[in-house]
């Protein structure tokens, strides 16, 4: 569904993404992991049309989309969340989601029906009239997800949707993410919560210093010496492998 070919992004003398290539298969949950500052969000920003890369190509469903504006890509079916969630604080939960629904449903009653259904899907069905400013961190994360879902994407980019959540909140939102894939939405996710990556993802790409250093199944990536040295550390890798053994 998505192909990134030899993408490079330079900001003056800084190379944020360096000749990165990756693929996302339709119907999959694909992970993009790596240390802070590795270039993950920059790569997301390129894929979603907010930046044009210095070099390289991005294709969506076989068609080149390099440099196409973000709102055009949203119309084509690419949605994204943002790492720092910024709801419209003066609007209700429903109204925030309606903003996304307006992309394909210009009539307000239609947009509100879709928004209410999406809110139910992500666990905000009982908070429709609440001001967005009253939500907890977990609630705001769900609202960010809902607003992206309301654009009815076929490819959804999730930028650290689990960041800032406690273990029980993470556990509660994992089934929501799986259900999106079951509904036919392909997902590419940046995430630091490695237990969630191992649990959710079919394939994982690892970015370090702007370059892809590994790809494979979660089990393969966790055991990769380059990934251990650049990102996980030996203790975390051992714990993750131990968790997999326990799950098996």
From TrEMBL:
Residues 2-234 form the ABC transporter domain. This is ABC transporter ATP-binding protein. The keyword Iron does not apply. It comes from Jiella endophytica. PROSITE patterns: ABC_TRANSPORTER_2 (PS50893). Pfam families: ABC_tran, BCA_ABC_TP_C. GO terms for molecular function: ATP binding; ATP hydrolysis activity; L-isoleucine transmembrane transporter activity; L-phenylalanine transmembrane transporter activity; L-valine transmembrane transporter activity. GO terms for biological process: D-alanine transmembrane transport; L-alanine transport; L-isoleucine import across plasma membrane; L-valine import across plasma membrane. CDD domains: ABC_Mj1267_LivG_branched. SMART domains: AAA (SM00382). One of its GO terms (cellular component) is plasma membrane. Keywords: ATP-binding, Nucleotide-binding, Transport. InterPro entries: AAA+_ATPase, ABC_AA/LPS_Transport, ABC_transporter-like_ATP-bd, BCA_ABC_TP_C, P-loop_NTPase.
């Amino acid at each position: 569904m998505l192909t990134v070919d030899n993408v490079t992004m330079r900001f003056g003398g800084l190379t944020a993404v360096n000749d990165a290539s990756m693929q996302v298969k339709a119907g999959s949950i694909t992970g993009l992991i790596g240390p802070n500052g590795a270039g993950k969000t920059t790569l997301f920003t390129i894929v979603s049309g907010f930046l044009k890369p210095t070099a390289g190509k991005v294709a969506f469903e076989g068609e080149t989309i390099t440099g196409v504006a973000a709102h055009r890509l949203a119309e084509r079916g690419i949605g994204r969340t943002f790492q720092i969630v910024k709801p419209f604080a003066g609007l209700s939960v429903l109204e925030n989601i309606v903003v996304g629904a307006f992309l394909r449903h210009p009539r307000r009653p239609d947009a509100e029906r879709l928004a209410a259904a999406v809110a139910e899907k992500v666990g905000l069905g009982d908070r429709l009239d609440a001001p967005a400013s009253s939500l907890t961190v977990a609630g705001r994360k769900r609202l960010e997800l809902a607003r992206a879902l309301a654009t009815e994407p076929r490819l959804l980019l999730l930028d650290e949707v689990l960041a800032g959540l406690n273990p029980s909140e993470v556990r509660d939102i994992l089934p929501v993410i799986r259900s999106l894939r079951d509904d036919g939405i392909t997902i590419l996710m940046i995430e630091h919560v490695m237990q969630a990556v191992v649990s959710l993802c079919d394939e994982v790409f690892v970015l370090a210093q702007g370059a892809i250093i590994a790809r494979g199944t979660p089990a393969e990536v966790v055991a990769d010496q380059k990934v251990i040295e650049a990102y996980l550390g030996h203790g975390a890798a051992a714990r993750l492998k131990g968790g997999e053994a326990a799950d098996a």
